[in-house]
Amino acid sequence: MLLANYDKEGLLFITSVLGKTSDKKYTAFRGDLILIQGELNDGVHMPPKLLLNQAAVLATDEKFVFVNGMFHELAQVPEFISKYKAALTPETVLLMYVENIKDNMQIELDGFTFKFVPYRDGMVWNETLEFLYIEKADLKGQSAEDKVVTAYEAAKSFKFKGETIAFEEALTKTIFVKKELHSGPV
């Protein structure tokens, strides 16, 4: 219900998975989660201005229980909280990749505990499975939705190694990320 409502509101973008888990307890989503929608132009939204990229979300009918994805900048986290605070609880497992940090860090912000991991490249989903020590054999025979449950269960019990710091201090520890632009064939 919760994710279906967000989908109706146009907040789920480039959806690859959206459906109930086999036990019907959760709804799983994989895709991009819109943080700031694009401008309205003749009744149609332009492309989003800000996303939680490559997100994996597990939700009950009312709340998120697991959110995984990638922020380009640590400073974007308050936008996520602002947009989805009603769906979060202190128990929500928040495992996020961030491009502009160099070390793992754990942060409490607005009553929510975020575990941040540096993002370098690759698919966030694959990086998450590797980070949580989930083998392909652990996922064999599971639906795409149930694979998100497996990631959630692993993240819930995972012993995270990272400094616990205040968000304001974390912002002082960000790094500059240089992106290479390619022109023409590579």
Report strand %.
25-35%
Number of domains: 1
Alpha plus pi helix count: 6
Sheet with most strands: strand arrangement: 1-2-5-6-7-9-8-10
Question: What is the radius of gyration?
Answer: 17 Å
Shape: globular
Helix content: 10-25%
Flag low-confidence runs: none
Main sheet record:
8 strands, mixed
Q: Count all strands and give the number.
A: 10
Q: Based on helices, strands and strand pairing, what is the structural class?
A: alpha/beta
Series of secondary-structure elements, N-terminal to C-terminal: HEEEEEEHEEEHHHEH
**How far is the first residue's CA from the last residue's CA?**
44 Å
What's the overall average pLDDT, rounded? 94
Model description:
The chain is of the alpha/beta class. It has one domain. The chain is 25% helix and 33% strand. It has six helices and ten strands. The chain has helices at residues 2-8, 77-84, 124-131, 136-139, 144-157, 167-171, and strands spanning 12-20, 27-36, 40-41, 44-45, 50-59, 64-71, 93-98, 105-109, 112-118, 163-165. The strands form two sheets. Strands 1-2-5-6-7-9-8-10 form an eight-stranded mixed β-sheet, with helices on both faces. The chain is globular. It starts with a helix and ends in a 15-residue tail after the last helix. The relative contact order is 0.16. The model has no long low-confidence stretch (mean pLDDT 94).
Condensed summary:
This protein is an alpha/beta fold and about 190 residues long. The protein has helices at about 1-10, 75-85, 125-130, 135-140, 145-155, 165-170, and strands spanning about 10-20, 25-35, 40, 45, 50-60, 65-70, 95-100, 105-110, 110-120, 165.
